[in-house]
Write a structure and sequence with these properties.
Blueprint lengths: L4 E6 L28 E2 L8 E7 L2 H8 L7 E8 L4 H9 L2 E2 L2 E2 L4 E4 L21 E8 L6 H8 L4 E9 L2 E2 L8 E3 L2 H19 L1
Parallel strand pairs: 3-9
Antiparallel strand pairs: 1-3, 1-11, 2-3, 4-8, 4-9, 5-6, 7-8, 9-10
């Protein structure tokens, strides 16, 4: 039986699992995904939004989440304050969080700001404090890494949207929507994972 691969646009406040083990009855993947045999390849925090890959292929799930394979993940990040070029350079070079320096990243200021769906609930608004957006691409996945990185350079994260995992993007999806990967997309992800893993071991 062929494996199933799903791209899902996770809304804010949705758990990246099918049950809420705390008993708080928060929204989970079960509220949106009608397939019981898929599992998230990587996670998004409750307060983060965007692209989530779900698959029934345990080997692919492992290759995407294992840091040895270095799958790039791209985020659009709304920051408190007007981000500076120096802060972007620091993010690109790597910053120290939790006693370790992050790997070099791709970072750039998004100007004009991206056209994204409104968040429910909206971010906190302060008339005296402007906001700005950056695009950040990482190849590692440490706990709340993006938020810790932007805080380390002096710009707290207000909103975080993952817009891409490798070549897969949010294009054509709205919050709460999903679509199945094409056979070619699944092959590309699997092949890319294997190639990155081989390069890391050289």
């Amino acid at each position: 039986m062929p494996h199933r691969h799903i791209l899902f646009y996770k809304p804010y406040g949705v758990l990246t699992q099918f049950t809420d083990e705390t008993g708080a009855d928060r929204p989970t993947l079960k509220n949106y995904i009608p397939f019981p045999d898929v599992y998230a390849a990587g996670r998004l925090d409750l307060d983060s939004e965007g692209l989530l890959l779900l698959t029934s292929d345990g080997a692919l799930q492992h290759r995407i989440t294992d840091p040895r394979f270095g799958h790039p993940r791209t985020y659009w990040v709304q920051l408190e304050g007007i981000v500076t070029a120096e802060a972007v350079r620091q993010l690109q070079a790597g910053v120290e969080i939790q006693g370790r320096t992050t790997l070099p990243a791709q970072a750039r200021i998004l100007n004009p700001t991206p056209d994204v769906p409104p968040r429910d609930p909206p971010i906190r608004y302060r008339a005296a404090i402007p906001t700005s957006w950056i695009e950040l691409t990482l190849t590692e996945g440490r706990n709340r890494q993006v938020r810790r990185m932007t805080a380390a350079v002096g710009f707290p994260t207000l909103r975080l949207i993952r817009v891409a995992i490798g070549p897969l993007t949010l294009s054509g999806l709205n919050p709460g929507n999903y679509r199945k990967l094409s056979a070619q997309e699944a092959r590309t992800m699997a092949a890319g994972s294997k190639m990155r893993g081989n390069r890391r071991r050289i």
